[in-house]
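Feature request disguised as a bug report, sorry. It would help if multi-protein outputs had a clear separator. Right now it looks like this:
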Amino acid sequence: ALKNAMFFQWLLNAEEYDFNYIVADFPPTGNMVALFEIPQNQVQVILKYSLQMFSQIREALQPLKKTMKMFNPLSWGKPEQKAITDDLVRMLNELEARGERVTRMMKEIGSLRLVTIAEKPSFEEVKRAAEMCKPYISLQGMHINKLIPQDAVDCDFCALQRGIQQKYLTQIRETFAQYKIWESHALRVEPIGVDGLNVLAQEIYGETPIGTILDPK
């Protein structure tokens, strides 16, 4: 939760600088959706209105408290209690405003890409992710990763796994036909470091123009 809150604060701070794009690599589906829901955290809302109600009750009882102070000298000189409550309400109002700003940014200008592999559990998860993310951000692309290439089918096990992948590859293509889909084969060398990431990017995007990658149609 702390890391997620830090991400949103960083995103808001980034508005002060001249960025053309901000790219974020989100965790798996459940954590990703929780990340999107943070600006609308219901506990935060309940706490805010509880404090506001407490503040209103406190103000309503203020005349009575002033009368009681005349008979209870030990209660004199406690203005810091009101200041603390006011500060808490103010901080929560500011937090809610920042959350609403982040939610609006993601909904209006955000663009989501989902990554999956051609297996049943991952296929079901990515379908669920697409539905769960609809209220928060627009899905514009899909990446199907770690496909076994035809020239790697040199054993019965590899052939079996590729057959399973082809089955779910077809289902993913049909389910997400309205979105841009990129496909990449499993690399023979682990993509570590900048050079490895360049190899992976070439495998995924090939000669696709950067404009199409950032704004797929």
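(second protein starts here, but nothing in the output says so)
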Amino acid sequence: MGERKGVNKYYPPDFNPEKHGSLNRYHHSHPLRERARKLSQGILVIRFEMPYNIWCDGCKNHIGMGVRYNAEKKKVGNYYTTPIYRFRMKCHLCINYIEMQTDPANCDYVIVSGAQRKEERWDMADNEQVLTTEHEKKQKLETDAMFRLEHGEADRSTLKKALPTLSHIQEAQSAWKDDFALNSMLRKRFRLSPDLRTPQGHCCQRPPWLTLFWKYLVELCHRESGLGGV
């Protein structure tokens, strides 16, 4: 689309590049066309994708995460140097309008009006997840030596509690660390196991440790014994 617009432009006979500069100025139009019809009010029409599941207050229908709308985007403030944008869109199932805006402090979107959020969030502290450091706490860590010392003690205490779990995870994963040795051991068991080489009746007995390539091995057993394919 961008390439087509760039090469298939008609220049009228009275077009003067020194006077008009571009075709948009010649036609008194904006490059974004209808999307910029309210640009004088600070509003730009964009394609907005619903960030989470909501219920519309107008029709009470569920709107799933990922549904897209033509939304009016407008800057309504700042969080430090990060702009806060508000999005206004019409529900595709009724005449109700939904307004949402960015929340840079929590890296999220908040509903201003027109809908209710389906609550699927959880507390990171209760879930024992790694918590992000807030901006105020970062500044305090840089300027307050006593607070930095107390924060370091708390971090060391948290690490001490988590060490047994981390050690258990590392120990569980260490069994699969040397994949070459495991593969060699598995191939050796293929060669030495009699159940894989001698068919019993019309099928081979499946070892409990075997999960991959079973169909191929059964066909190989039948082929070697002259029984044909399966």
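Even a blank line would do. Unrelated, but nice: The mean pLDDT is 77.
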